[in-house]
Structures are given as structure tokens and as C-alpha cells.
Design goal:
- The chain is α/β, with parallel strands linked by helices and 272 residues long.
- It contains nine helices and nine strands.
- Strands 3-2-1-4-5-6-7-8-9 form a nine-stranded mixed sheet, with helices on both faces.
- Strand 8 and strand 9 form a beta hairpin.
- It starts with a strand and ends with a helix.
- The relative contact order is 0.15.
Length: 272
């Protein structure tokens, strides 16, 4: 049984955070586990309150998993503050977990800050050197690198700078690109650049896309896939989740986590 652990915040609305991660793990055939870093009161209209866990609570959750069940891959999401980031890095090293996917969650869809400003340095100094993959969107990559990213070349420069911080594979997501017809994600493995383009969908129901995308990568890594192949699946998974919309709430609705599996099932049924 392949296993994946998410270390992230809880979204009471179910669209992002550990809820999105666990749904994605399940859809991709991986047993999901979680260590909560914060509880949010959240819905499609935004984040209303944040209640961070104590560092001891986070560490004890990770150790409970590490001492008994173990995991094949780890994803980090909302870590909130520097103390939690440092503590998580210590535990990753303790258990020698190497398939680590860092989604550097900083700002919620509605604009609420999910990472304290003083935690940026801790993220760069303690967590990124342990990451097999990092999945920032363009604004997050700009914060981490200090660069302005508007062109493909600037996206590549940012990827190189993140690689220099110790990350083995950098995926800069293209959801914030200016191109109205397509979104282009960039993968850099330290040697080669790969571009993955997909049709841009005109919808407000994109809550949790970043969480879901990085969780799909984590699930595939847990099953032994290469980063490149994990990226291919994650792109298909999130594209289906956005295209096959569900309409929930009054604001930025969640993506459709079962769309990818349903598409595969429909194709198999059509062949019969």
C-alpha cells in the first residue's frame, strides 16, 4: 500500500488544505495521512479565522505517523510560521523522508495571508534544501526569489534561483500568466527545462487548485513515478478538476476532485 502524508492546514470548506490533499490521494489510489498545522474557518468567500496549532502538536502528529505507519512521500502546504517550518524540517530529516513536495502556500484565494512574513527565511533556509519538488505559483516564486516574473525567460531565471537554494526540481505554475488562452507550467530539474501548456478555463471555481495539483504530484511520487511523469498526471488531474466544474458556495468554488477518475472510467466504459 503506497502512502502519502500531508502536513498542512485544514480548510473547513473542504476545497483546499488537507481536505483537498486527502481527496486527491484517495482518487489516485494512495493511502492519505495528515498532520494539521492550523485550523481555518473558511468557505468559498474567504478565510475568516486562522487558529495555528502549537509546534508540539505538529511534531507529535508527524512522529505518530513516522514511528508506526511511515510514508512514501510527503507534501507540505500551509505551515504558517517559522517555528513550525523549522520543526517540520527536523522531522523530515529524522525519518529520512526524501520524496518531499513543498507547496509554499502564502496567500489564500481571497487574499488572506497564510504564512507570516518572518517565515519566508525559515522556508528558504530549512525546508527548501530538503525538497524534491517545489510548486510555487508566480507570485510565490517572486517572493522566494526577489525577481519579477513576466516572461518565460524570467520564469526560467526564477527556477534557477530556487534550484540554487537546494530544491531538486522546480515547478512554477502558470495560472497567473497573462496569456488568456493557455496556462504554461515550467519544470526545471537542474539540467533541462520542460513546458506543460493547457487550455485556460474561464471560471471562478479554482479554490484549492494549488493544493490539489501538488497533492497529485505527491501521490504519484508515493507510487514510484518520476517527477516528470508525476507532473503529467497532475496536469491532467487538475485540468479535469477545473473543466468539469461543480458549483458550490457564493464565491470561489472548489475544483472537482473526482473528475479525473470519472473521465478514465468513462473512457474504459466506451471501449467495452
Amino acid at each position: 500500500m503506497n502512502k502519502a502524508l500531508t502536513i498542512a492546514g485544514s480548510d473547513s470548506g473542504g476545497g483546499a488544505g488537507i481536505q483537498a490533499d486527502l481527496k486527491t490521494f484517495q482518487e489516485l489510489g494512495v493511502f492519505g495521512m495528515s498532520a494539521l498545522t492550523a485550523v481555518t474557518a473558511q468557505n468559498t468567500l474567504g478565510v475568516h479565522s486562522i487558529y495555528p496549532m502549537t509546534t508540539d502538536a505538529v511534531v507529535n502528529q508527524i512522529q505518530a505517523i513516522g514511528d508506526d505507519i511511515g510514508t512514501d512521500a510527503v507534501k507540505t502546504g500551509m505551515l504558517f510560521n517559522a517555528e513550525i517550518i523549522e520543526a517540520v524540517a527536523v522531522q523530515l530529516k529524522r525519518y529520512k523522508w526524501e520524496a518531499v513536495v513543498v507547496d509554499p502556500v502564502m496567500i489564500a484565494k481571497g487574499g488572506a495571508s497564510l504564512l507570516q512574513s518572518e517565515a519566508i527565511s525559515a522556508l528558504k533556509n530549512f525546508l527548501l534544501p530538503l525538497a524534491k519538488v517545489i510548486t510555487p505559483n508566480i507570485p510565490e516564486a517572486e517572493v522566494l526569489t526577489g525577481l519579477t516574473i513576466q516572461t518565460d525567460e524570467e520564469k526560467q531565471d526564477a527556477a534557477k534561483r530556487l534550484y540554487d537554494l537546494g530544491v531538486k526540481n522546480i515547478i512554477i505554475k502558470g495560472g497567473h500568466d497573462d496569456n488568456p488562452s493557455e496556462s504554461k507550467d515550467l519544470l526545471f530539474d537542474g539540467k533541462e527545462f520542460y513546458t506543460f501548456a493547457s487550455k485556460r478555463i474561464n471560471t471562478k471555481n479554482t479554490h484549492g487548485t494549488g493544493c490539489t495539483f501538488s497533492a497529485a504530484i505527491t501521490a504519484k511520487l508515493a507510487k514510484g513515478a518520476t517527477v516528470y511523469d508525476a507532473m503529467l498526471t497532475a496536469k491532467d488531474f487538475i485540468q479535469a478538476a477545473i473543466e468539469d466544474q461543480i458549483s458550490i458556495g457564493q464565491g470561489h468554488g472548489p475544483t472537482n476532485h473526482w473528475a479525473y477518475r470519472k473521465r478514465i472510467a468513462d473512457k474504459e466504459y466506451a471501449r467495452q
